[in-house]
Design goal:
This protein is α/β, with parallel strands linked by helices. The chain has three helices and three strands. It has a three-stranded parallel sheet with strand order 1-2-3, with no helix packed on it. This is Nucleotide-binding oligomerization domain-containing protein 1.
Amino acid sequence: MSFAEMLKVNKKLVHLWLIQNKITAKGVKCLSDALQENTTIKEICLNGNLISQEEAKAFENEKRIICF
């Protein structure tokens, strides 16, 4: 099971800190899709990842991201 697939079904994780994880464009898409299904995560931090402006659009409606 991939990390993104796990996030879709996880009901205990509240804070998700993915600081400096070298998230790729594919990772951004998978993470965005997973977050649409996960309602228990309240805060997400993606600091230090080289996410382009174009890739960041996948998160434009995501209010839980507190640092980018």
